[in-house]
Amino acid sequence: MSYITATTLEDALTALAAGPASIIAGGTDWFPAQGDRHFDGTLVDISRLSALRGVEQTETGWRIGAATTWTDIIKAELPPAFDGLKLAAREVGSVQIQNTGTIAGNLCNASPAADGVPPLLTLNAEVELTSIHATRQMPLHTFLQGVRKTDRTANEILTAILVPDLPDGTKGSFVKLGARKYLVISICMVAVVLRVEGGSVSDIRIALGAASPVAKRMTALEEALRGLPRSDLQSAVTDDLIRGLSPITDVRASADYRQFAAKQVIRRAIFLALEGSA
Q1: Which residue, among 1, 27, 29, has the nearest Cα to 15 in the 3D structure?
Q2: Which of 32-36, 94-98, 205-209 has the lowest mean pLDDT?
Q3: DSSP letters of the chain?
Q4: What is d(CA 189, CA 260) in angstroms, rounded to the nearest whole number?
Q5: Inter-CA distances, 129 with 211, 243, 272, Å
């Protein structure tokens, strides 16, 4: 294995195109995933590319660089719609992991329990993929194709996450259920983004993670809740509206328990988002 610390994006893309190569930034997912397997290629470290780090407001929304760490997300000045993403950032491993692990690494690892995915789904995030030849964008829900599977090709780097503007008054939340409080992989987690106008819910987005092979938006539930008075919102989350979840069974919980827990965690996340709504 050879190791390169890229000093420009072009250097990283060139090394990737020459292959075989793998991209790391924090490496907090990549190294544990290797286990005892031998990697016979070039490891390209992009952690020092300042152009890929940071959060900036654009004319159409927000751009989050691929190498932005979870600590960067926590410290960034972002509107309340991003509160769910900030809460999720605080749940990513230990403080040391938050200081090193990156938002793009969390997405490219494509774990069903990736903390960053549900909040970004509720923000209608897109990913920007760059190769030596071209740049393309796609919705995050299209990019994530299954357990450890994405639409990124071998010669592409995920260079940014793009979030469109949301109306003033939009609030976000995130709730994670695990077997213990700290350093835990989720049994179930929920992100909510909502907006209340005149006492009723004008928009709501709900995404559930760690309870199915791929985190997903709960579109049927969203449609049922839009337009309801805020006082009726939590009680309107019923079992029939979260069917079709296809929860998984693993060492952390059974499918039946995840199905049961989903309703409670969704209600809790809605409550937290409403607490921040006028």
Answers
A1: 1
A2: 32-36
A3: -EEEE-SSHHHHHHHHHHSSEEEESS-TTHHHHHTT----SEEEE-TT-GGG--EEE-SSEEEEETT-BHHHHHHS---GGGHHHHHHHTTSS-HHHHHH-BHHHHHHHT-TT-TTHHHHHHTT-EEEEE-SS-EEEEEHHHHEEETTEES--TT-EEEEEEEE---TT-EEEEEEE-SSSSS---SEEEEEEEEEETTEEEEEEEEEESSSSS-EE-HHHHHHHTTSBGGGTTTT--GGGGTT------SS--HHHHHHHHHHHHHHHHHHHHHT--
A4: 13
A5: 27, 33, 33
Structure tokens of 190?
Answer: 């929920």
What pTM did the predictor assign?
0.94
Per-residue pLDDT reduced to its tens digit, 58-68: 999 999 999 99
Domain spanning 171-275: CATH 1.10.10.10: no
Q: CATH 3.30.43 occupies which residues in the chain? A: 1-46
Q: Does domain 1-46 have CATH number 3.30.43?
A: yes
Task: Look at residue 184 in the predicted model and tell me its pLDDT.
Answer: 61
